[in-house]
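Researcher: Here's a chain I'd like modeled. Treat it as a single chain, no partners, no ligands.
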Amino acid sequence: MLKKVSIERNRGIFQNISYITVLQVFNVIAPLITYPYLVDVLGRDLYGVFITAQALVYYFSLFIGWGSDNVCAKYVSIYRSDKRKLSEIFSSVLSVRAVVWIVGLGVYILFVLLMPTYRQYYLLFLLTYGMTLYDVLFPQYLFQGLEKMKYATFVVIGVKLFFIILIFGVVRERTDVYMVPLLYSIGYLLGGIASLYIVFSLIGLKLMNTGRKISGFLVKESFPIFASDLITTIKDRFNILLMGSCIGMGNVVIYDLAMKINLLIAKPTEILRIALFPRAAKDRDLSMIRKTILVSFVTATLLVTVVNIFLPYIVRFFLNEDIDLLPIRLFTLAPILLSISVLIAFNVFVAFGYNRYVLNSIIITTSCYVFLLVSCAFTHHLNTLLTFVMISVISYFVEFVYRLVKYKKIVCELAPQG
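Model: Modeled as a single isolated chain. Structure tokens:
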């Protein structure tokens, strides 16, 4: 009987990992499908403006999500058999996200109008904000906590295939640049609506008036994760916002391509993190964590090696020109560091209740990033792509060292209990 339960449990884990794998890989591949086409049609500079708009919108997406996906997935996993509790969690998260979205829209419009570089592309920036509707409506934490990632997989793939096909059919010249964010926004809105149908009709949850207590608790619990996501985004996407004015929009596209390559390399780590997080939170099994980290590290190292071997051909395919590959090669060190750092942060710190370590690592990493950025600005070295890449990689390394030290401390604290 116990063997049957174990088999069923492992089958659920493997099915969840399979769906997450498909989803995560497709999330990275989807924008790469249109990448060379849009660079060719719009030109590197104009496409760089759209990437800049995406980078700015991503900050607002972080505020809308507020780190709640990971924390709420933990509570969904705990209360998975209690429909009322799940409805309370879902309703609280949806209401908070809706309020933040409305406030964020006003702040976003004001910011764009105050920035001369952005103001001339006001409509492009405004349409790009529509992509955040997905962050309001799509409850990844619910599907993740219930280990029903197949729903998320079907919705996301359907949505992205929709606007990929339309981009090839509609965007034919530079003046069609506004159609790119419009198609993305419409696709994400449809995806959000489809996910709500699944929540209400298939999972059977209901909207409830939960008051401020539950919402406030979830916001407070999610803050360390939100701060962690924010600093990660600052290291990557704030660079994009600065690069446009410091070294040109053309370099923004190169940096963005490097980020997408890193995202693809880091996907195995992300898949393991998401799929095994509910189990880590419930079982607190350090042996499983160690094996997961080892698999993640080896996989990332192998992928980085392969990518660097074929990097000249990869860059030539997407940009249709030869460039200096050193910045991209250096940037590929980041996924190796993250293969360990990310799993420690979420599947140990958050899952085991050591959220303060996540926040502390953010403070240290932020200080390092700002110090390096300001130092380079004052010494007039903030004028090459390589400089921006080095600042990011050093920040990742500092974050990695801190988290590794705290992980070893946790292992020592819990060892007598094992």
